[in-house]
């Protein structure tokens, strides 16, 4: 019994060690710059939320946050629409060259997107998508396709066809069968894809920083990039801004953790 | 009556309709991924600057010849492979230890797993910035905590020192992704049927030895998947370094991805940068291919 208690305490300590950097960020975000410099590991004298207000208003994180929301929601809606349709066709229909197309798409799983920065930078510049939120949304959707198609296709393959057959016999066409029967029954698989991609889209930095160089359009991740190039560092502002960027994802992640873990376990089997 | 078991869905062969399901995906993937992959190969055979809109001077293999003669690339590769070897060993070691320790679904284990998994949700850039402040020699958590514990002799400028900078970046990476490895390994362990452990008990395994006789051999394929994931991720390490050392001090943290980015964007040598990108692509491909073959081989062996 005592051994069990001790082992549990060690486990919680190990877990807490991983939580230290987040604690450091949250605690420091409530301190003044003076407190951070004079007593770096102490607690704040009083909870000081002014860092958040100045990050939100003066440092533009309010507008970055709104841009993040627009980009992430736009990309998620488009991604689900595009990928469920395609994954369904891959799972159900006989299409010429289907396997070739599927392999080309799944090939995307091993392409490091980083290698595409130069052509994409030039492409966005030439077609006028630079500093365009919608351009970034399209790019994110394209990057999300291989993984989403992979997960959704394996779900549709395991999903029984009887319901769809019945709907077709009753006179539904392919599209209405899809939207009225298949989509509502795939909420679980779609949530898995969405939570995975939500985190990826919200956190994406390289392309957002490069392709949206107008400060008005930047999402939070790219906005944080400003802090890496400042010589005179505003620590309190940095901690508050990082918290603004991080805490919403952490909360959503905690709520939907189950789906995230399912996606990981699922990709293991594939 | 139709006696065929095939669903009518599959039997209807209306290609136009079927393709209309796929086309939106194909257009996006084609334009923003496939076409761009083609372009990076194309650019690597030309000469030109980032901001010139037309790149016309064909130079053949010149960028690649330069790449293989570039002493800087050699240093970058040495750093990158050092990083990869250390990170593979540490991530697998820590991930395996934690997953064997925390694999059962008790409440404490679930809490610990969640806490370790949580960093996965933070962005690379926020992670880099937070750790940058933690490593700060004067105001950072690490040196101040060491002083507090009277371990002053251990304090140093973690990121400003060529001896410790790369390892400090590795620690950031470990913190960020250890939970991810843990969750995948736990999923692998939980897939092992209980009766194998029961049979092991009859043959004399105990709580400790069953890890070596049963668990580890049975999650062999999970190791392959994870190693592949860790290596390909290491080729992409960018944000932590952007937020901290930017490749320094003295290039000691100049990994392949950051070097490629700096060559193409900061120095605006976009065509030479593209050659580095193609090189990076083939490195990832070689590793992915090797591991795919290995895991197929492992699977065939078991069947």
Outline of this structure?
The complex is a heterodimer of chains A (270) and B (303). Chain A has 270 residues and is mainly α.
CATH topology of chain A: MetI-like fold
Order of helices and strands of chain B: HHEEHHHHHHHHHHHH
Greatest interface (CB-CB under 8 A), with counts per chain: A-B, 95 and 98 residues
Task: Give the quaternary arrangement of the chains.
Answer: heterodimer
How helical, in percent, are the residues of chain B? 55-70%
CATH fold category name of chain B: MetI-like fold
Task: Give me the secondary-structure category of chain A.
Answer: mainly alpha
Order of helices and strands of chain A: HHHHHHHHHHHHHH
3D shape of chain B: globular
Number of domains of chain B: 1
Can you put this structure into words, describing what you see?
The complex is a heterodimer of chains A (270) and B (303). Chain A is mainly alpha-helical. Chain A has a single domain, classed as MetI-like fold. In chain A, 75% of the residues lie in helices and 0% in strands. Chain A contains 14 helices and no strands. Chain A has helices at residues 2-29, 33-38, 50-57, 61-92, 98-107, 117-127, 133-158, 162-169, 174-185, 187-203, 206-211, 220-224, 235-255, 257-269. Chain B is an all-alpha fold and 303 residues long. Chain B has one domain: MetI-like (MetI-like fold), CATH 1.10.3720.10. Chain B contains 14 helices and two strands; from the N terminus they run H-H-E-E-H-H-H-H-H-H-H-H-H-H-H-H. Chain B has helices spanning 8-11, 15-43, 62-69, 71-102, 107-117, 124-135, 141-148, 165-190, 194-202, 210-218, 220-234, 239-243, 256-266, 270-302, and strands spanning 46-47, 57-58. Chain B has a two-stranded antiparallel ribbon. In chain B, helix 3 packs across helix 14 (270-302), helix 5 (107-117) runs antiparallel to helix 8 and helix 11 packs antiparallel against helix 14. The longest helix of chain B is centred in the C-terminal third of the chain and has 33 residues, at 270-302. The two termini of chain B are 40 Å apart. The interface between A and B is large, with 95 and 98 residues.
């Amino acid at each position: 019994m005592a051994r069990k208690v001790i082992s549990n305490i060690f486990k919680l300590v190990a877990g807490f060690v991983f939580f230290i950097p987040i604690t450091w960020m949250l605690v420091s975000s409530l301190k003044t710059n003076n407190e951070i410099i004079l007593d770096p590991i102490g607690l704040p004298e009083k909870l000081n939320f002014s860092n958040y207000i100045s990050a939100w208003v003066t440092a533009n994180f309010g507008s970055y946050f709104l841009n993040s929301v627009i980009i992430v929601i736009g990309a998620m809606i488009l991604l689900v629409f595009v990928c469920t349709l395609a994954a369904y066709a891959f799972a159900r229909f006989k299409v010429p060259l289907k396997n070739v197309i599927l392999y080309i798409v799944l090939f995307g799983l091993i392409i490091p997107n980083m290698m595409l920065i130069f052509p994409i930078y030039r492409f966005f510049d030439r077609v006028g998508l630079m500093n365009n939120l919608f351009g970034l949304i399209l790019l994110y959707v394209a990057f999300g396709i291989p993984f989403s198609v992979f997960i959704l296709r394996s779900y549709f393959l395991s999903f029984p066809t009887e319901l769809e057959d019945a709907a077709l016999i009753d006179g539904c066409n392919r599209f209405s069968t899809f939207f009225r029967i298949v989509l509502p029954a795939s909420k679980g698989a779609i949530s898995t894809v969405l939570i995975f991609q939500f985190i990826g889209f919200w956190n994406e930095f390289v392309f957002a920083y490069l392709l949206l160089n107008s400060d008005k359009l930047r999402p939070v991740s790219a906005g944080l990039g400003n802090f890496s190039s400042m010589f005179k560092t505003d620590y309190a502002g940095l901690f508050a801004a990082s918290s603004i960027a991080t805490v919403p994802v952490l909360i959503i992640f905690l709520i939907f953790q189950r789906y995230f873990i399912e996606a990981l376990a699922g990709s293991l089997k594939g | 009556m139709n006696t065929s078991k095939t669903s009518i869905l599959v039997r209807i062969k209306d290609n136009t309709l079927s393709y209309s399901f796929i086309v939106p995906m194909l257009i996006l993937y084609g334009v923003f991924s496939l076409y761009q992959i083609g372009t990076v190969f194309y650019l690597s055979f030309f000469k030109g600057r980032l901001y010139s809109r037309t790149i016309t001077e064909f130079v053949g293999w010149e960028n690649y010849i330069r790449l293989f003669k570039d002493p800087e690339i050699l240093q970058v590769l040495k750093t990158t492979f050092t990083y990869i070897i250390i990170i593979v060993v540490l991530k697998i070691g820590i991930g395996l230890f934690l997953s064997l320790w925390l694999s059962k679904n008790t409440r404490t284990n679930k809490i610990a797993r969640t806490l370790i998994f949580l960093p996965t949700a933070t962005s690379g850039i926020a992670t880099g910035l937070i750790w940058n402040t933690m490593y700060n020699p004067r105001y950072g958590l690490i040196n101040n905590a060491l002083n507090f514990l009277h371990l002053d002799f251990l304090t140093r400028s973690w990121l400003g020192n060529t001896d410790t900078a790369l390892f400090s970046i590795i620690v950031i990476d470990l913190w960020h992704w250890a939970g991810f490895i843990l969750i995948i390994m736990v999923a692998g362990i939980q897939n092992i049927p209980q009766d194998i452990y029961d049979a092991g008990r009859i043959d004399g395994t105990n709580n400790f030895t069953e890890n070596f006789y049963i668990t580890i051999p049975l999650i062999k394929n999970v190791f392959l998947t994870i190693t592949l994931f860790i290596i390909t991720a290491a080729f992409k390490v960018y944000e932590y370094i952007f937020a901290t050392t930017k490749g320094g001090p003295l290039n000691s943290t100049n990994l392949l991805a950051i070097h490629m980015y700096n060559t193409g964007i900061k120095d605006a040598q976009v065509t030479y940068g593209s050659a580095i990108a193609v090189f990076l692509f083939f490195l990832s491909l070689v590793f992915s291919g090797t591991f795919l073959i290995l895991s197929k081989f492992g699977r065939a062996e078991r069947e």
